[in-house]
Here is the input.
Amino acid sequence: MKYRKLGKSGIKVSEIGFGAWVIGLNWWGKKIEDDEGIRMLKKAYDLGINFYDTADIYGRGKSEKLIARAFKGMRNEIVLSTKFGYDIYSGVEQIGHDELPQKFDEQFVRFALEQSLSRLETDHIDLYSMHNPKMDAIQDDTLFELLEKLRGEEKIKHYGVALGPAIGWKEEGILAMENRNVTALQTVYNILEQDPARDFFPVARERDVGIMVRVPDASGVLTGKVNANTVIGKDDHRSFRKREWIAEAMQKVKNMGPFAESKGWSIIELAIKFILSERSVSIVLPTATSIEEIEMFANISDGNYLNEREFEQVQEMYNNNFYVKVSA
Here is the structure.
């Protein structure tokens, strides 16, 4: 496992992180029981993964509690990242994948932080991120003054912004990096969906913000778990992927084959190594639902990535839609 600096924090983090949404939510076509989730967490640690990203909304605290159970007595050996902003405490029921109401006022943020600290059984969070904030939250000076206060109180070490829920949020991401003292920015980025993350990279390099990448496997297309014949249940988070998009993505994957083969890599190796070839990326957060998948992703972090010419070649393939003609 290779390690990088998390933005301006100086914290050393594993290039591959553990996205703990999978152990808190049954949204990826597989229900992970608590004992299995703990085994996955511990296996990740054994493989050199030290960064664990979760959120209070993942199973309404379940994911955070499992992390605490897995790493009891090991607080100084792991980097904890959790997120806040959704009101999971007022009793509002979440229907499917619909968003819950958001709150970013001081009373709520302090309360939410104390709840996360309790569930994680710690006295501080290494990275505390706004979860899918809208523009009004990014523009809220009072909120960022509060986050600085919480740093001063040593309840959080650093704070960031996790963009979403879907791909996009370019203006919010750039404003957060340029005008706020964020350490990290989490966004969707993969070899098939390079925008708007490309626009984040030069700003991140200038401001020393660490980019955290989620959905690096394009919802399973790049690992081969999803293809044109895959039936995705309505409760699966990937159900937003239209069959036409998947079919076109599969053709693009096929067209990438010769390039990957020339490097001696599988498609998923190319996909992850492409991301890690961008120096502003601090962490890749794959959706791994088994120990075998954790091992696969961890093994890709070896320092052998694309050189500048090869990186630009893949970007050009993307610019040309991987030579796939798109119907109007």
Notes: The chain has a mean pLDDT of 92. The longest helix spans residues 243-263.
